[in-house]
Amino acid sequence: MKGIVFTEFLDLVEEKFGLEMVDKIISESELDSGGIYTSVGTYKFSEMLQLLQHLSEHTDISIDDLLLVYAEHFFSVIEKSYPGLLATYQDPIEMLSSIENHIHIEVRKIYPDAELPSFEVMEKTKNSLTLIYKSSRAMHHFGLGLMNKTFEHFNTKATILLDKIKTDGTEVKFTIHKTP
Ligand code: HEM
């Protein structure tokens, strides 16, 4: 997992819960990195999982909810860091149907060792989209948060349903309807 995912996560934890919480979850986790991350480095996903687990224990917020809120923050990082990529799109359905064949392809050019999910388009109309998310990392709520912000970015609204195809969350169906 790319360092930017860790640095932005720890920044948000500090902002919401304070530096003591950052120190606490780092010292409770077994981290090869020692909890020192640079945005261009690459670290084990298991480090993120441990940090999330400990934060969840201390805050009583589920890992899914933590990932949802974190993704909403991460979208603003994307807006700041990759404005050109977002400017390619005028419509949220177009953007979300292009994660697999454009957006994450560009991401891989920037970070060749990025660990990215797949988002297969099952059905697409002007105002609706069905996507199948697949990833061993089961970060579907991170995806949900980015989708929420994608609609906000285009001043639109949508209902987004999430159905787990596999109970461990490694395969999830998203059914998206843009609100007219
Ligand atoms: C992961 C970039 C749009 C879903 C990531 C990662 C980066 C990234 C850097 C981390 C990879 C790693 O740590 O190895 C971007 C950029 C985007 C974008 C620059 C837009 C310009 C989206 C959108 C979605 C999405 C719109 C929507 C649903 C995900 C998910 C992951 C991820 C779920 C977590 C990894 C996993 O589930 O396996 N993305 N992304 N991304 N991205 Fe994107």
Automatic annotation (TrEMBL):
Which InterPro entries does the record cross-reference, listed alphabetically? H-NOX_domain_sf, Heme_NO-bd, NO_sig/Golgi_transp_ligand-bd
The coiled-coil segments of this chain are: none
Q: Name one GO molecular function term.
A: heme binding
Domain named Heme NO-binding: residues: 2-160
Give the Pfam families listed for this entry.
HNOB
User: Which superkingdom?
Assistant: Bacteria
Q: State what protein this is by name.
A: Heme NO-binding domain-containing protein
Origin organism is Formosa sediminum
